[in-house]
Every structure is written in structure tokens, then in C-alpha cells.
Write a structure and sequence with these properties.
mainly beta, Methylamine Dehydrogenase, Chain H, six-stranded antiparallel sheet, five-stranded antiparallel sheet, 5 helices, 33 strands, globular
Length: 508
């Protein structure tokens, strides 16, 4: 039960949240110039479509032919009401198509039901992960029920999928970027389908199998693992009781097992159900509980295993594989998600151009799971500040040597200013840094079409230059990252924060 004092406190907190959200945009204009550049990451794009042919600086590799799709929040404000964090906003697909030494750049919002309804009303109508709806009674309950479709982009069998973590993904035409419908990737009427898919999926680097996970029940009582072959035909599916109803974002795939990393973030549902707190504000960080690793065989031939490791917050896995009945699972891990939780967290204060709290770096960590002994241990591979890891798609789910990440200096900011190539066997890495007033997003690995060498290819990543206020898409040779970009696509405008990308080669 919630006491009268707690109820009044929650009402005050709710009113304060609404007030801070409304005043965020005005507050940003009062910041010093050398801090305000961060707000470009939270500047929405006010037009539905951009279609241009940017200039190219340097020389694009002649074998770089295809389309990079990226997804992220493209709209943060309606009717002077602003989203609370950089993670929250309506999904906008951007596409960079490379052909004959030129690049075509396009954007288009995902026409979700939420986006259509709110565009018609000229204001936000629904609560989202970190932001309440503008009117109190629209937050009863304050649970996200409308997809923003703004986290990942995946192309499968001629369909471009835009994933969120609410419901099923939206299907788009990969050529026109027009939204078709919300769609279960397993097909209409799939048996035992997850109620909601997680944003991240894995594509097996050897078989081409597409692996998805999802949840159903309240609060997240069942964990689903779905495996489809390269042509989209079902191969295996499992649903396992969740030993912990805590929030998670990503998972591991080893070519045989799905591993769920359930870090200790218990949910207090009552204030959320009463409309007093957002979903994220209803979570707490309990490192004393440790993290659980749940190992699931989607074929159902093995019983699930649960193992414990010290608490570590994980946004993203790097890769995982199996060797001698042991799972090696690499990820970017934080001792605490202080950049995410709390009123001064960096993900919140960036909306007004402030650095905010972010004391815990994202280290490259490794969980070693002994399936025979049913025990696990946690190791640190590299103690730097990383995020948005990627590998060559050829090695996803299998033994590998190189990982690629955005890298930064946690003593200055959570936000990264460089790109790193990491040898995960030795722990050595090389890097290229753009400078303290630059933001570098996720590097997407593009394999060289004529080579199967693991590091043969290119890295594509967006860079916001705070000194000019403009964004570029830069191209690295993945074998010599420390030499810097070989080419840059000059967009002539800032781009807002984006999460993840997908490379679709022209010949596939």
C-alpha cells in the first residue's frame, strides 16, 4: 500500500517531472556555447523526408556498394513539451546508399500508430519509457503501450524492420522507406509468439539464421527465444519462465544457445500503475543481488541453466561463442548505470546540454560460463570507456578476434569521441579520436565483398562536430582504424542521436 505521505510525494514528483520536461528546451538556450553543442544530439528533424546527394570528402572505396540503414529518435518535442532523455523519441530511419562513388542520403519517420495519432493531435498523447504524457490522466497507467519503432533497423527477405521494445516491429519498404504495417516477423497467427520483441536480434554468421527474443506476461513472466532460417522459416522456439522480472535490453547468441543477461533492476510497479512514475523511474539498481545468466536451448533438447555473476549493467553484447562446453560471452558492462538512472543522469541532462552524472565507464567484459560445472565467472578484457560494440557479421555467434566500439573519456562525458578496434584475445586495441567536442555513434562493420578475412572491410559511423554543429558519415578502413577516416560524407546539417545500423549490400 502507498501511504498518504508517499502519495503526496509521488504527486509532487510527477508534477516536477512534467515541469522539467516543459522547461528543458528554454533552459538549453541559457547554457554556455561550449556546452550547447550537445543539444544537437536531441534536436529533432522537423520535416518528414530528406532526400539529398551530399558531397564527399576523400575517396570512397570502389567496392563499397549498398545501403546503410540507421534508426533512432528523430522527434523529441511537440507543442513545447520535450522528451525527458535522449533515449526517448519517435523513430526515424535514415538511409545512406553508396553507388559509383556517390552517396544518396534519405530520412523518413516510421509511421507508427503513435506517430500518426500525435501528428494529428499536434501534441504527445502517450507515456513512453522515460517521459510521461503531458496530461496526468493520460498516464493511467504510465506504461508504454505504443511502439516508437526507433531503436534498430534490420533487413530480412526484402522487408526493412524497425524495432522498439513495445509490441512487434514495424515493416517498411527498404526502397521508399514507407511504413507498411506492424508485423510479427514469424508471420500472421504465429503460435506462442512473444507479446513484445526486444529491439536486438542476431544473425548467425555461418547459417544465416535469424534469432529474436521477446517477452510475454506481466511482469515479463516468460522469456521467448525464436530461431528462423535464412529464408524466414521457423526452426526453433522456446518460452522459459523468467527467474527475475527485471529489465534487460540485449542478449547473446552462440550458434546453439541464447543467453539472457538479467541484471539486477527490480521494478516497483505500483507508482507506475498509478501514473506517478515512468517505467524507467520505477526501476532501481540493486548490485547486491548480482546478475543472472539464463542459458536456453531454443530447440528444447536441453533444460535451461541459471548461473550467477557479479552485478554488471549491459546495454549491448559484443559477441558470444562456444568452446569445449564453455560459453564465452563478451559485452560492454558498467559497474552501475548512473548515466541512465536518476535526475542528473547524463542521458537526461544532455537534453539541456549538460554533461551530467556518468562515473562508471563501459568496460569490455567477458562472462565465462562452464556448462558442465554450471558456474560462471566475470572478467574484464579492457578497462576503457566503450559502447555500441559491433563485429564482422561473418563471425556473429562464433569464435572471433576483433570487436569495434565507440570509445570516449568518462572523466569528461559519457558521450564518445572516437572509434576503437579491439583484439579480444590479447586485450590490445587501437583507436582514432576526433576530439572532445565531437560525438561518435555506433560503428557499423561492412565486410569487403572480395575477402573473408575477419577485419577486411570498412566501418561506417556518424560523427557530430560540436565546433561546426554539423554531422558527417565517416568511412574507416577496418584494418587500420588508427589511421583515421578514408572518406567523409558531408551532410551539411546536424543529425540527432541514433542507436543502431544495418548494412545491406547491393548484390544481396
Amino acid at each position: 500500500m502507498v501511504s498518504r505521505r508517499e502519495t503526496l510525494s509521488l504527486l509532487g514528483a510527477s508534477a516536477a517531472t512534467l515541469a522539467m520536461t516543459r522547461s528543458a528546451f528554454a533552459e538549453a538556450s541559457l547554457l554556455p556555447q561550449d556546452q550547447r553543442w550537445l543539444t544537437h544530439l536531441a534536436d529533432g528533424i522537423c520535416v518528414d523526408r530528406i532526400d539529398s546527394v551530399p558531397t564527399v570528402e576523400g575517396r570512397l572505396p570502389p567496392d563499397l556498394s549498398g545501403t546503410l540503414y540507421r534508426n533512432g529518435p528523430g522527434l523529441f518535442e511537440r507543442d513545447h513539451y520535450r522528451k525527458s532523455t535522449i533515449l526517448d523519441g519517435d523513430g526515424m530511419i535514415r538511409a545512406f546508399t553508396f553507388a559509383a562513388g556517390r552517396v544518396r542520403f534519405r530520412t523518413r519517420f516510421v509511421a507508427t500508430e503513435k506517430f500518426i495519432h500525435e501528428a494529428s493531435a499536434h501534441r504527445f498523447l502517450y507515456p513512453t519509457w522515460t517521459t510521461p504524457a503531458p496530461r496526468f490522466f493520460e498516464n493511467l497507467p504510465e506504461i508504454p503501450t505504443q511502439s516508437q519503432a526507433g531503436i534498430t533497423a534490420v533487413v530480412k527477405n526484402g522487408v526493412l524492420y524497425a524495432f522498439d521494445e513495445v509490441g512487434h516491429p514495424y515493416a517498411l519498404d527498404p526502397d521508399s522507406l514507407s511504413t507498411m504495417r506492424q508485423l510479427d516477423p514469424q508471420g500472421v497467427g504465429a503460435q506462442n509468439s512473444p507479446r513484445a520483441y526486444k529491439a536486438h536480434t542476431k544473425t548467425d554468421g555461418q547459417t544465416g539464421a535469424w534469432v529474436l527474443v521477446g517477452t510475454s506476461g506481466q511482469p515479463r513472466q516468460q522469456l521467448h527465444a525464436v530461431v528462423m532460417d535464412a529464408k524466414g522459416r521457423p526452426q526453433a522456439q522456446s518460452h522459459t519462465p523468467n527467474p527475475r522480472g527485471d529489465y534487460f535490453h540485449d542478449f547473446f547468441w552462440t550458434g546453439r544457445h541464447v543467453v539472457f543477461h538479467l541484471h539486477p533492476t527490480p521494478l516497483s510497479p505500483l507508482p507506475m500503475l498509478m501514473g506517478f512514475r515512468t517505467f524507467i523511474d520505477s526501476l532501481s539498481w540493486r548490485p547486491d543481488l548480482g546478475s543472472l545468466l539464463l542459458v536456453v536451448d531454443p530447440s528444447g533438447s536441453e533444460a535451461p541453466l541459471t548461473m550467477e555473476i557479479p552485478a554488471s549493467w549491459m546495454w549491448h553484447s559484443v559477441n558470444a561463442y562456444e568452446r569445449d562446453n564453455t560459453i564465452i560471452a563478451d559485452f560492454v558492462g558498467y559497474d552501475a548505470p548512473d548515466h541512465f538512472f536518476g535526475p542528473r543522469a547524463a542521458f537526461r541532462t544532455v537534453m539541456t546540454g549538460r554533461t551530467g552524472v556518468a562515473n562508471s565507464p563501459g568496460k569490455l567484459r567477458r562472462a565465462v560460463l562452464d556448462l558442465t560445472r554450471r558456474s560462471a565467472r566475470l572478467e574484464t578484457v579492457v578497462s576503457e570507456h566503450f559502447e555500441f560494440p559491433t563485429v564482422s557479421p561473418h563471425v556473429q555467434g562464433h569464435r572471433y578476434r576483433f570487436g569495434y566500439c565507440a570509445i570516449g573519456d568518462i572523466t569528461r562525458s559519457w558521450f564518445h569521441d572516437g572509434v576503437a578496434k579491439i583484439d579480444v584475445e590479447s586485450g590490445r586495441y587501437e583507436q582514432f579520436r576526433f576530439g572532445p567536442q565531437c560525438y561518435v555513434g555506433e560503428p557499423v562493420f561492412v565486410p569487403h565483398p572480395q575477402s573473408r578475412a575477419e577485419d577486411a572491410g570498412w566501418l561506417l559511423c556518424e560523427v557530430l562536430d560540436g565546433r561546426t554543429g554539423l554531422s558527417d558519415l565517416v568511412v574507416f578502413d577496418a584494418q587500420i582504424v588508427s589511421s583515421g577516416p578514408v572518406a567523409g560524407v558531408k551532410l551539411g546539417r546536424p543529425l540527432p542521436f541514433s542507436f543502431h545500423g544495418w548494412w545491406q549490400p547491393a548484390w544481396s
